[in-house]
Amino acid sequence: MARFLVSLAAREGQEEALQTRLLEEFRSLRSRVDEEKLSIDAMVRVPDDPFAAQYPVPRAFDAVIDFEASGEVVSFSGWLEGIADRLVDFVYADLSGVVTGEARRIAGSVGGPERFLYFMRRKADSTHESFGRYWGEEHAKFGKKMPGTLGYEQLHVDPAASRTAATHAGFGISEIDGVAILHLESVTAFGAAAGKSTAGSQAIEDERNFVDGRNSVGMALKIVHTSR
């Protein structure tokens, strides 16, 4: 299965217009691919994102299209080609991006109306490969016991394929090492449950072993269009 995250940084004042435009792109993508072989979720950042204060340095994304398909993704590549030009009035191309790689379900199930996405960059003293090993083999244990979640996935990014996809799209960001995906019933419920547990603080502490936290960014999003 091929997994792609197309992440969009809205121009100031264009957040609502981008959400409307997102529906057009969603319909265009869905029409290109056999529905039995795809999963598409289009998401927008929740108002007053509670994670904004936790990740103050990097620019968060305002919308994300999460695409997964079995077999060939030629139709997806055709849709992706030149998307920056189609959205030039709504997004900053240099602050938007595409990453692709292998998705691994660590716990629970996929779905739910909201998500937390954490776009992670490795520490300078590690390699992409060592980052992936530690994240997948050691850090994953925290996701298995995180309260308030429906499911937890890890997207292990393919750097070369991501650079190619970002170039085709016309976007600037591809240098992400991994994306943590938490499937949620609600961000509020997740926050309340996490606040009563030590799992969240332990996970954050462990991230210091392999994540460049200053240059990584997390955000809460809600599903606005889906094809599952």
What do you see in this structure?
With 228 residues, the chain is an alpha+beta fold. It has seven helices and eight strands; from the N terminus they run E-H-E-E-H-H-E-E-H-E-H-E-H-H-E. Strands 1-3-2-8-5-7-6-4 form an eight-stranded antiparallel barrel, surrounded by four helices. The protein is globular and about 45 Å long. The protein starts with a strand and ends with a strand.
Summed up:
By secondary structure, the chain is an alpha+beta fold. The protein contains 7 helices and 8 strands.
Please outline the major beta sheet: 8 strands, antiparallel, barrel
The run of helices and strands is: EHEEHHEEHEHEHHE
Low-confidence stretches: none
Strand order of the largest sheet: 1-3-2-8-5-7-6-4
Number of strands: 8
What's the helical proportion of residues? 25-40%
- What is the averaged pLDDT score? 92
SSE class: alpha+beta
Shape: globular
Radius of gyration using CA atoms only: 17 Å
Q: What's the tally of helices?
A: 7
Q: Beta-sheet strand percentage?
A: 25-35%
Cα(first) to Cα(last) distance is 14 Å
Write the layout of secondary structure elements.
Blueprint: E1 2-8, H1 15-32, E2 38-45, E3 63-69, H2 74-80, H3 83-86, E4 97-108, E5 114-120, H4 128-144, E6 151-157, H5 159-169, E7 178-184, H6 187-195, H7 199-207, E8 217-227
Antiparallel strand pairs: 1-3, 1-4, 2-3, 2-8, 4-6, 5-7, 5-8, 6-7
